[in-house]
Amino acid sequence: MDKFANVSVLKKANVYFNGKVTSRTILFAGGEKKTLGIILPGQYEFATSDKEHMELLAGKLEVLLPDSEEWLTVETGQTFEIPAHSNFKIVAKEVSDYCCSYLKE
C-alpha cells in the first residue's frame, strides 16, 4: 500500500536520539496505529510495548532482535517483527525510511 486514506495524523513528531530518529503517528478509524519515520545513520536501542511490524521503505539496517545473537540485514522492501515488551537494536547504514505497525495481541 503506497498511501493511507481516511486517517488522522498527530501533529507533534516523535523525536528520539537528539533528532536522529523521528516519526509521525497515523491513526486509523478502526483503531489501528502506525508510525512513518526516518532513521539517520547510527546505532540505536529501542523498547517495545506492543508487538511491532517494521517495513523498510528505503535504506539499509542491521537489526539485533530479542533473544538473538545474529544481526539481521534488512533492506528496502523487507520487513521484520519485534515482540511486545522487548528491546532491540538497530544500526542504520544509511538514511532509512520506515513504516511501523503496532499489533495488539
Automatic annotation (TrEMBL):
It catalyses: inosine + phosphate = alpha-D-ribose 1-phosphate + hypoxanthine; guanosine + phosphate = alpha-D-ribose 1-phosphate + guanine; xanthosine + phosphate = alpha-D-ribose 1-phosphate + xanthine; adenosine + phosphate = alpha-D-ribose 1-phosphate + adenine. It comes from the Bacteria. One of its GO terms (molecular function) is purine-nucleoside phosphorylase activity. One of its GO terms (cellular component) is cytosol. The keyword Glycosyltransferase applies. Pfam families: Ppnp. Transmembrane segments: none annotated. The keyword DNA repair does not apply. It is an enzyme of class 2 (transferase). Keywords: Glycosyltransferase, Transferase. SUPFAM superfamilies: RmlC-like cupins. Its EC number is 2.4.2.1, 2.4.2.2. InterPro entries: Ppnp, RmlC-like_jellyroll, RmlC_Cupin_sf. Belongs to the nucleoside phosphorylase PpnP family. Catalyzes the phosphorolysis of diverse nucleosides, yielding D-ribose 1-phosphate and the respective free bases. Can use uridine, adenosine, guanosine, cytidine, thymidine, inosine and xanthosine as substrates. Also catalyzes the reverse reactions. This is Pyrimidine/purine nucleoside phosphorylase. It comes from Lucifera butyrica. The lineage of its organism: Bacteria, Bacillati, Bacillota, Negativicutes, Veillonellales.
